[in-house]
Amino acid sequence: MITPDGTRLVRDHTVYSCVTGSRAFGLATEDSDTDRRGVFLAPTPLFWGFTKPPTHADGPADEQFSWELERFCELALRADPNVLECLHSPLVERIDATGRELLGLRGAFLSRRAHTTYLRYAVSQRRKLEADLRVHGAPRWKHAMHLLRLLTSCRDLLRTGELTIGVGDAREPLLAVKRGEVPWAEVERRMSRLAEESDEAATRSPLPPEPDRDRVEDFLVRTRRASASAG
Question: At what angle do helices 113-136 and 184-202 cross, to 10 degrees?
């Protein structure tokens, strides 16, 4: 049995793809890349041999990355920020019936786990910014902007139970950070405040403590069975 490479799986078996990053957030400028993310469903018979299909694939286009459906669901259940943002992108480029059912499960993936996952990611990114400051005398301002956006998204998700992708009226203040117009001390203050507000929101969030794993697993099993029957 020959396992198709990632490019073929993305080309022939994508169930959902979208644009993420600055263009989805409302932060795009003339020099912004177009980041594409997607989900492909590897045909079930490919799992029956010793060599399994890949869990993810780069390309075939520049700035394009895709996950196999099971891996995507695993990461979403852990509240991985990149995966959840992919699920909630307003810029959908390709979708089929399986992809629409996946989007219909968006609420099943959301839980208070986002508090831990998002803030852990934020801490790691802040340390990188601080390292850049020590070595180069300045942080990577674009990354600082995106960290502020992510912290705001986390706080609002915990407060409302809904994940908002677009930055709305915060566009210009965030772009000012990207341009290096905001002192680092002020950026640090904003980051700390957002983290504290997220901690506070987590204590009374409308989100459930855990995601609805059973509902997601039911979807995955049904999808695998349908693929096996079709094959």
Answer: 170
